């Protein structure tokens, strides 16, 4: 679509927009701007408004809980919790590897223990084992009231950055 | 933000938009329209343009592979593959339960076996075990060239629909 | 202990032996003989009286359900079900690799779906993915009445046989 | 088999016994005596010479590394590591439940990160989440040199003791 067509489509969407739709569009547009300004390296991270921080050997990612990431029951979609866990555990592994190495996720297991509600989700991460070929990690996702909502372990293959 | 402010923000985003940014905005806006027309029951499914089908005891979901769901290496984000698996396995379980029951995912394990590339991803699903309190399922995600990219097993708790 | 001391200890154990104890000792002694005759390659397989068979691309292992493998509730110990699954999935992978390669289990996940009771357990196996470095497999354990008691997926690293 | 037949069979096994066979028989017979004296509640725990301890909210089990639990490569069988993890995590859960409740394992995932060698294995355990219907736990198995060999998470269903 051309830029004109996109503007027209935005107008159409706004005609019938509920307050929630407007909020979602605001989140998406501000996300896209962050991507354009290279504050985010992927659309998915931009749209999720993920904020990562590496401190004291831990890598943490926070995302606001918004209608974008909720299922039909207004609870955070388990796949988004998985996205947060995969990003945060992968981010931790990147931080402990030399710059010529990167990783791919080889497996991940998640236990969902409480519903994802509240204002934001925070994912904390730890290394379980660092080998020559693989790294095994642990991640936990908390609500802003401190309740654990999910626990995960994952394995990452170390590969050469091409 | 008001509708006027959102239109102005759309204009701003379009100023600096690369072709890819325009494509992403088009996908999001057409997704939001589907949500407004109740063709999709959540923003995440609308933005992913997920298409589900129940046939021969199997529930299948397809999503196009677009820049929205790719990580910085232009490979589908493992969390999105997880989202697809969780949605499809959960969808299958809903189809075999009476209408007064619903489910929550209690655990999910995913093996990632090949990179998510190509035009679309298809997730097929099967029941491993149907109990009184839980259902255990299996899901597989394929590329359009038929390559398996991920395998998953998951458990769902059966709960009363409130 | 010397052979004489071992005979004396056997006598002691038999003094207080219940019928079940005698049955367990019989299973162990006949297992040890199989190990001595090289019919079994490990004590654990000998004691479990595991019988493997490779047929039509599948590797299957059967074990009799005996008091040796039951927990205090006379149900098969989940760890023994795991032992059966690990042995059978690993056995399948060995069958599809060249003779100079072997494997180590890197991860295994098991869903326990019904209690392990009855006369014997049978584990069937399948390949999910065969890569250059890893193989991902699936295993299912059934009772002799056909009920599925456990489902597992596992990953194996391919290594050079030293 | 009668007690006389069992003694004769023991004699036969001892005829051809290697030193290792004698050691294995000693471990089994001393294990069976512990079972007869009700020091162990199952044959498998008796044969493994498992020693559990509950201290500071943690439940720990130690087992000696003996030829009984090793695979053909003289490394501890992954299924025995699973048995140790399942027993220890299940034991921890029993300790935090009221006496009229018990649990069954519903799922377990294990990451194997180093070979099981050395003199003994120690499994430590923690609670990840305690709910009304399920408990999610974490377990780690260490060698006597302090190396982590396996990490596990598991879910247990709480049921009424019959």
Automatic annotation (TrEMBL), chains A, B, C, D:
The keyword Zinc does not apply. Transmembrane segments: none annotated. InterPro entries: ACOT13 (IPR039298), HotDog_dom_sf (IPR029069), PAAI_dom (IPR003736), Thioestr_dom (IPR006683). Pfam families: 4HBT (PF03061). Keywords: Hydrolase. Residues 75-149 form the Thioesterase domain. CDD domains: PaaI_thioesterase. Belongs to the thioesterase PaaI family. This is PaaI family thioesterase.
